[in-house]
Each structure stands twice: as structure tokens, then as C-alpha cells.
Design brief:
About 45% of the residues lie in helices and about 15% in strands. The chain has 9 helices and 7 strands. The chain has a 7-stranded parallel β-sheet, sandwiched between helices. Helix 3 packs parallel to helix 5 and helix 7 crosses helix 8.
């Protein structure tokens, strides 16, 4: 028996990195899983892995920058499976280059874009998912924060958006039935495309190299390492589960190797 037997989950940003790891962890514990992202080839690979675990998989391409389209996608997933129990909001990232993201030179449109990708898109997905959860008197909504959701130091638009997710989760937790929980899971530096792109693409602008940036990132947590995406899976399962996750709501939980403690 798995901790999530009979549950239906949707993972946005589920094509790679943390999204892929979470989708597979949920499937391994018995959930049928829909994964959504903008890259069809990545979704097909994850879908095949979910099916390899003996669970139903559903893949859907969507644009996280399209609010109404995001709501339509969520409703379509719920209709496909007949219900929706778990929503993991993982879609996000950084839009723009270093100069356009610095405080004194920040591009106005990039500020809006980063807020939408990392905060507003999660609102749209959750707004669509909650009526399905209320109908079935069960729900788990998990937002994906960041080390920068709790501290400063990142790009102002990205940091503001990730801080906003914590506020969104805490506000929602008060306004949903007790059978529905709303939480934020915060990774730190994790071996993802986002991190690798940062190390490789911004090193020159900062007058250094990728290896030096990676070493600096490793030094920011207690364990002096970059966390693997798969390490977030067990906590994702706990937060999504019926028994273990029932009394966890409005919380910020970190799986980050002790980032800036």
C-alpha cells in the first residue's frame, strides 16, 4: 500500500528537475499523475516513467504565462481523471539576463514577467484546482518556494515572487476547508537547469567562472553541497499524504541542505 493510493495529482513544471522528481515520487506512492509543462518531449519521457511505475499518466503542454489557459488546463486534468486531489505548483524560473534583473537597471517588463511566472501563474492554477478539491472534501496544494523565498540576495523580481508564494499559501490556508492544506516547499540550490544556467550564463557578467559560482553556492548551506532533485520527493509525498500531511498547513518547509541557517 502506498501513501497516495487512489489519489490524483497534477505537477506543473513537471517535465524536468524538481518537477520530474516530485511527479515520480508521487507515482511511486500510488498516485496517478498529470504532468504539465511547455516542452512535449520532456513530458513524454516523464509520462513513460510514471507508467513504468504502474500508475496512470497524463501529459499536457501549457504556457504558465497564460493565466486563463492555465485554468483551462487544470480543469481539463480534473475532467480527465474525474477528480483532482493534489496540486504541486513547480512551474517557475528566471526570465531575463543579469543586467535586466539588477535593482538599478531592472527592466520593467521583466519585473512583471518574473512575478507572473513565479507567483501569478501559481495563483491561476490553484484558483482552478480548489473547487475540485472542495467538491471531494480533500486537497493538498503545495507551492514551490526557494532559498530566496525566505532571504534576500536574489534578483528582486524573483525574490519578491517567491516571498509572495509564502504569503499566498498562508492566506489561502485560512480560507479553505480543514480537509484542504496549503503549504510551501522550499528547495535551496538544487541540481536543476535553472541552477546550471545561472552558473554557466552569468559567470562572465560577474567576472568569474561557472566553477567558482558553483563553489559559492555550495558554501551557502550547512552541508556544503548542491541538493539533488530526488531528495525533495519524500517530503513532497509527506505533504501530499492523507495522514502525514493532514495537520501541516500554512507552513514553509525547506529541503535545502541547511541553506543560510
Amino acid at each position: 500500500m502506498g501513501a497516495l493510493d487512489g489519489r490524483i495529482a497534477l505537477v506543473t513544471g513537471g517535465g524536468r528537475g524538481i518537477g520530474r522528481a516530485v511527479a515520480l515520487a508521487l507515482a511511486a506512492e500510488g498516485a496517478d499523475v498529470a504532468v504539465a509543462s511547455r516542452t512535449a518531449s520532456e513530458l513524454e519521457s516523464v509520462g513513460a516513467e510514471i507508467q513504468g511505475l504502474g500508475r496512470r499518466a497524463h501529459t499536457v503542454t501549457y504556457d504558465a504565462m497564460d493565466g486563463p489557459g492555465t485554468k483551462t488546463m487544470v480543469d481539463a486534468v480534473a475532467n480527465e481523471f474525474g477528480r483532482l486531489d493534489i496540486l504541486f505548483n513547480i512551474a517557475g524560473g528566471v526570465v531575463g539576463d543579469l543586467e535586466g534583473l539588477m535593482t538599478l537597471t531592472h527592466d520593467d517588463q521583466l519585473f512583471e514577467d518574473n512575478l507572473f511566472l513565479n507567483l501569478t501563474s501559481a495563483y491561476y492554477a490553484t484558483r482552478a484546482a480548489l473547487p475540485h478539491m472542495v467538491k471531494n472534501d480533500y486537497g493538498r496544494v503545495i507551492f514551490t518556494g526557494s532559498g530566496y523565498a525566505k532571504t534576500g540576495g536574489g534578483a528582486i523580481s524573483y525574490t519578491a515572487a517567491k516571498h509572495g508564494l509564502i504569503g499566498l499559501a498562508r492566506a489561502m490556508a485560512y480560507q479553505v476547508p480543514p480537509s484542504i492544506t496549503v503549504n510551501t516547499l522550499c528547495p535551496g540550490w538544487t541540481e536543476t537547469k535553472l541552477a546550471v544556467d545561472y552558473f554557466e550564463n552569468t559567470a562572465g557578467a560577474l567576472g568569474t567562472d561557472a566553477a567558482t559560482l558553483r563553489a559559492a553556492a555550495e558554501a551557502e548551506n550547512v552541508q556544503k553541497r548542491i541538493v539533488r532533485p530526488e531528495e525533495l520527493g519524500p517530503m513532497a509525498v509527506l505533504m501530499a499524504s492523507e495522514l502525514g500531511g493532514a495537520a501541516i498547513t500554512g507552513q514553509v518547509i525547506s529541503v535545502d541542505g541547511g541553506y543560510r541557517v
